[in-house]
Amino acid sequence: MTQEGSIITDEMKALIGVEGSPTVFEVETGAIKMFAEAIDDPNPLWQDEDYAKKTKYGGIIAPPVFLCSPRAGIGKGVQMKSPFFRVLAGGDELEYLKPIRLGDTITAVGKIAEYNEREGKRGKMLFTIIETTFKNQHDEVVVIGRSTYISY
Amino acid sequence: MARQLYYEDVEVGMDIPPLVKQPTTKQLVQWAGASGDYYELHYDKDFAQAQGFPNVVVHGKLKFGLLGQLLTDWIGEEGSIKKLGCSYRGIDHPGENLVCKGKATNKYVADGEHIVECEIWAENSKGEKTTPGNATVTLPSRG
Amino acid sequence: MTEAGISDEIKAMIGTMTEPSIMEVERGAIRRFADAIGDPNPLYKDIEYAKNSRYGEMVCPIGFFGWPIKGGGLEQMMGMIMPAMIKAGLFRILDGGVDYEFFIPIHAGDTLTSYGKVADIREREGKSGKMLFITMEQTYLNQNGDKAAVARATIIAR
Amino acid sequence: MAEKQIYYEDVEVGSEVTPIAKVASTLMLVKWAGASGDFNPLHFDDNFAATQGTGGIIVHGALKRSWLGHLISAWAGDEGYVKKFSCQYRGMDYPRRMASMMDPAEGETWWCKGAVTNKYVEDDQHVVECEIWVENGQGEKTTPGSATVILPSKKAKK
Questions:
Q1: Which of A108, A150, C4, D102 has the smallest number of CB atoms closer than 10 Å to its CB?
Q2: CATH class of A10-26+70-151
Q3: ipTM of the predicted structure?
Q4: Which chains neighbour D (Cβ–Cβ under 8 Å, 3 or more pairs)?
């Protein structure tokens, strides 16, 4: 049932939990290098194989926010509905279960986890939370991302 | 890398060593290439001005990436991030200082893991927290 | 044309080789390239398509050499030649263009080794005085040692 | 490729290489920077470009070269093979600005074009030589070049 005055319709509610199309992303040397250079992070763990071998990871891993990008598929492929036209990225949250390793093939699948509505200065705002699950080639969940999109 | 940080070194309220950044237009273009986020607001000045901004805007997720570096630099190789999140509250422009900061807000041992919770943020030259967030990390213990 | 005008110092550089440089060709790099130039050829993005093609794997587009595949020690060669040219009073450098020759396809996953060679230095008398045409050759070999491509860059100094 | 394969017998001297249209938007330049690794701000930073005397941000030469690579490899098809390729950068091009998130502002479209200049059989290979170029909205060839392509022959086909 749609609550009186709520902007969240039954049609929108029906989209909760529906998985979007997957994004497959290969964790390659070049991709990690581009990421590290873009944030200007010189940590040898991201780029120096000889160095990384001696750490507890035993090889190169990706920086923590590496998968939080459209290329890696965060929030992608999910059908979103909102009564409003304007959308802003509100924030991102990542939960780490396994390291993201060089050579991994990551499959990202997103779904709408929940909606919230709030009264803002300029009227109602809709918060859509998309949960993206990133799995590696061994079918292990490596990262779970929760991205908030604000439409108003 | 710097000296490894241990659970015992951390006290609630202590500051994470700040990370001073000044994203350049080049970095924004590098980020677009790395992330695949090619929204023109981040590199086309005419487009940004048509949207009412004085200059191109730093990607929110790029700032999130900087906060990631703040933490990995601090916790060292023996530490791990369990959770990391931030909100995009304010706009930042390239060429301006952006300082990533943080402080420990809680520490405890659970299931044999030595856990530290932190508040983290990126602040502009006016001291405004444009990108506030939180993180949960595990650290090695001397004990 | 006279060869006599070239100083022995410059002439001695013909045949000089650079240290090899190594590059890995990654699928992601090919995808980003094809996306950037707007080339929809599935050989550059669709692994399944590429595997069923006569190439058996994603391949490098033609324009891949130069950028992002640099290597070949072009800068290293310039660094070797420049002091002698400056000594000879030839400061102004013009890019005379690059010719590419391809021998075998380069696949994603290949490791390319490239090295540069100062192939030729010729002198010509131009309207504004002496001009040097320097040809630098960059050879790219794949992991089996097979010659994959050769790029010839010409620099004109006057 | 979905397009029909072209054969040696299909082309004559003077035949047109199927043209391709390109729009160098600021979006394409940024994608190219990422794909090529050439982050020279002359190609995206207005303030920097204003100090370089170019009259604004300019299209990367190597991007135009890669368009020509797209032109010739798409024309040669999956069964054809580009053997030689070169081009020169003769004129500067300025990207289109973006009017909205999706569409570039009104302005020019670049065309990659070419024509067959020679054809012959050598060492059992069916060779076609072409003149290729990028022309801007005013019809100026800012990036002329040439290519040598090996095409399949209908005679060899069983």
A1: C4
A2: alpha beta
A3: 0.83
A4: B, C
